[in-house]
Amino acid sequence: MQWSTIAATAVGAVLGVLATLFADQVRWRRDLTERDRETLRTAFTDYLTALSEARDAFTRADARPERVGNGHIAIAEHGVYTAQHRLELVAERALVEKAGRATLSVLDFHDVVVAGHASDSDEYTHAWRTVRQARSALIEEMRQVLKRR
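Predicted structure:
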């Protein structure tokens, strides 16, 4: 048997193995990226859902001035802090900071409602707009993160 035939067979086998390993690596990275994206998407959705539920519940809260400043208890009951902690584990710092601002805006909204400000008052309108702006900024950041992934 000629050495060139053996060498060509060996080189072909090595190239085949390398090509297979490379394809597996590419597939693994793609799968990992997709899992990461899905993890982020789930964390984003859970946080936004909890935040919206808390905000909506606060719009129906009774005026009880003694509860001003206790929104953190009410917001925790809606799972916002739990969802925010999950977000902190998987998201970038800029996004986590925007989520924190969104949470604080909902807490401020809670205080405005329980302080007894009517829905047509300047305080209520300002607090509601602040919540919407913080949420919009957060959603835009979430979209950018998902595009980069």
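Summary: The mean pLDDT is 89.
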